[in-house]
Amino acid sequence: MTSQVRGSQLARLLGQWHALPGRRRSPDYAALAAAVRGLLADGRLPLGVRLPAERELAEALRISRTTITAAYRELRESGHLASRRGAGSWTMLPGTHRVASTGLWTPLDDRDMIDLGVAALAAPPQLVAAARAATEDLPRYLGGAGYHPTGIIELREAVAHAYTERGLPTSPEQIMVTSGTQHALDLVLRLALSPGGGVLVESPTYPNALAALSARRARITTHGLGTDDVGWDADLLLGSLRQVRPKLAYLIPEFQNPTGHLMDTGLRERLVGAAHAAGTDLVIDESFVDLPLDDTPLPPPVATFDRHSRVISIGGMSKPYWGGLRIGWVRASAPQVQRLAAARVGVDMASPVLDQLVAVHLLAEASSIVAARRAQLVAQRDALVGALAERLPEWRIAVPRGGVTLWAELDGPISSALARAAEEVGVRLAPGPRFGLDGTLERFLRLPFTLPAADLVEAVGRLAAVRYDLDRTGRSQWREPSVIA
Fold first, then answer.
1. What is the tens place of the pLDDT at every residue in 26-37?
2. What are the distances in angstroms from CA 112 to CA 109, 425, 428, 430, 447?
3. Residue 271 in contact with residue 240, Cβ under 8 Å?
4. Alpha carbon 106 to chain centroid distance?
5. pLDDT tens-digit series, residues 90-135
6. How many angstroms separate the CA atoms of 479 and 472, rounded?
7. Do 94 and 48 touch, CB atoms closer than 8 A?
8. Residue 288 contacts by C-beta under 8 Å, 6 or more apart in sequence?
């Protein structure tokens, strides 16, 4: 079923859309069409969504229906709207242009490259000691086969305890250890989503999640996130669930990747209720839940409001600890965990015992390790924000209250061009379109603050140098896809 946006919802998204006064002002219909194109280009208005009827939108905007008719006509002529008599009008892009999110990775060993494509920290100093302690624990497991499809009991207990400490009582039987958060998502999709099933995701969102959904041939519907502090439009998000009734919804409520938004408590509770009414399972990615900054209080976990086993939470050690430690997990009902373990047998049997033991020792020191990580991230975030304000003041930045990334709104639709130019001066970027489904988001750029402050300041200096030369650059060259994490 196609999602539909109501007149009042579209009016709220459009905001101050009117043509500017003056001798060369555009007609209102042209300004309205341009504003709708801007929403599409920024990913705030999804593709394939049905726009309100002309009369309804005219009433919501308090303008004449003639203006709406002319604006819709201009959008059809520019290829941004498809209409069928008696059925309505749907958003699209000219030439049905789409960009696939492959998630392909190509490592680079160039030490002079400042890699802002990967949003992950280097290993904490405690990792070596944890690895040594894990080897001392290993002998007691060597007498068995080493296959633990749901994970070793020590790690499942540690993860369950962390959820309980967050106010969500959890038993080890509700935890399944995986080989990273991406592996957790893949297993959940294998279990809960048939090929071609409907999925609702945020736009922008994590590129490798889109790759996993594409591998399942999912029918993806998007909910566009705003650029304000709120992020999610509750009316539109819940409306999409009720209208589309997808089988799954994949959401990142804690410091969303890439925008850094934090979903409030009220929307979390309403989200679970709407998902139950729509028959939708919620896959909640909690990759950044350990990284609130500036003493930001965290709302309760989304699963706190679940009474019908509709919420499956996934998380892992990659962001607060180290990406090289491939440890993730799923929190679900005990029967769901057992079904996941059965599905896992056809994939990889179990996670490495030694890695799990390392994770146990790191989680035992979580308070000190994570506190140091947060202090490190605050300093690096502030250095990045300060450098951007000084060198690229035209870019709009919302300072996140947690996570590891900034979502920058650029001074033009130049994200991909800037990424190509930046590579020439030794900076790798993750351009906005990689975080969307349809080639939009060219006005946006994800900038992680996981590197040392000096590297971040140097990277911004290089970006500022190439930004002002973009209009004079020569023919662009094709490049291999790069790491985005």
1. 788 988 998 898
2. 9, 9, 11, 18, 18
3. no
4. 21
5. 898 786 444 333 333 344 445 578 999 999 999 999 999 999 999 9
6. 20
7. no
8. 252, 254, 255, 257, 319, 402, 403, 404
